[in-house]
Amino acid sequence: MKRILYLFFIFMATMMLVSCADYMEKQRERQALQRERQAQIAAYNSRLDGILRNRHPSFFEQVPMNNEVVIGFVEISTSRKIDTDKPEASHPDLTVTELSRILLDAGYRKYPERVNLELADIRNMKIQKSPQPRTHNTTTWTDRNGKVHQNITYTFQTNFYITGDIVHRNPSITYTTHQNVQQVSSNPAVAVTKAAEEIIPFLKSSNRIAVVNFSTNDQDLSEFVVSEIEHILTRRNFTVVDRTQLNRIRREQNMHLSGEVEESTIVDVGRFSGADIVITGGVTGTGEIRRLRLRVISVEKTELITTVSQPF
């Protein structure tokens, strides 16, 4: 009987230790996820603040530009309050930059698959402000000499209801300022982003995608375009074939993927890598006006799904 009780206690102690270990492991996982989430939020806020800091003053003038694409309507309620010892203080307000930041953030959260923060602008912004009655809180305390003190804290709060339209602006805009006329030209990063956004509706979440062979005389530009497209697709949770694997297949199959390459060769690379979609293309034109062209090809059907072209 004693042996049975001894074994029972050993079993229970072992189960408790296992349960404790599982609990500690889950706690560590939760803490790691929480730290990762906090880091993502901090990076996002830093990115959004940086975008607004670099915006031209005309952005905050709410001036519509040509060729803008309306993404959608956004509305949000928020409030600001201040605590002070001054009963004559004013109710808090929001600057145009703060209002724009709030709407851009709301638009990105509402349309995460459609809003590109670098291209997004706010139009038709409307604000309703509702200052709330002043409130106060009295704290009484006694010092060591028995003297009674009172601290009065006044709270001023303003509620805001903000609405506006999220749009994607034309990446080539002429801004008029008091000093001069500044031409802001499109650049490869903007062209790649817009081109990628155009092809994404033709892709499925289950697709395995290979980005292969961008023909251009500028090797650095080719590397940049491929890297940006892979980054954008990965950020949208698509599965992208690693370039190391593509280079290994190219060497093993003795395939030449520089310059103009036949479509059948590109499809073969996709097939060997296990991809069902291949994205290829190139840069055409010289001088100030060039075009980025993308082609999306089905590996299984060996047919063109779509093609896009963006100037820069």
Can you walk through the features of this model?
With 312 residues, the chain is α+β, with helices and mostly antiparallel strands. Helices cover 37% and strands 32% of the residues. The protein has six helices and eleven strands. The chain has a five-stranded mixed beta sheet, with helices on both faces. Strands 1, 2, 3 and 4 form a four-stranded antiparallel beta sheet that branches. The chain has a two-stranded antiparallel ribbon with strand order 5-6. A hairpin with a 6-residue loop joins strand 9 (277-284) and strand 10 (291-298). Helix 3 (188-199) crosses helix 4 (219-235). The chain starts with a helix and ends with a strand.
Give a short synopsis of this structure.
The termini are far apart. This protein has helices spanning 2-53, 96-110, 188-199, 219-235, 243-252, 263-272; strands at 69-84, 120-131, 135-142, 148-168, 173-176, 181-184, 208-215, 239-240, 277-284, 291-298, 303-311.
Key descriptive features of the protein:
37% helix, single chain, Rossmann fold, alpha+beta, flat, five-stranded mixed β-sheet
Please render the helix and strand layout as text.
Blueprint: H1 2-53, E1 69-84, H2 96-110, E2 120-131, E3 135-142, E4 148-168, E5 173-176, E6 181-184, H3 188-199, E7 208-215, H4 219-235, E8 239-240, H5 243-252, H6 263-272, E9 277-284, E10 291-298, E11 303-311
Parallel strand pairs: 7-8, 7-9
Antiparallel strand pairs: 1-4, 2-4, 3-4, 5-6, 9-10, 10-11
Structural class: alpha+beta
Q: How is the quaternary structure best described?
A: single chain
Going by CATH, the homologous superfamily of the largest domain would be: ABC-type transport auxiliary lipoprotein component
CATH architecture of the largest domain: 3-Layer(aba) Sandwich
Write down the overall mean pLDDT: 78
Count the helices. How many?
Answer: 6
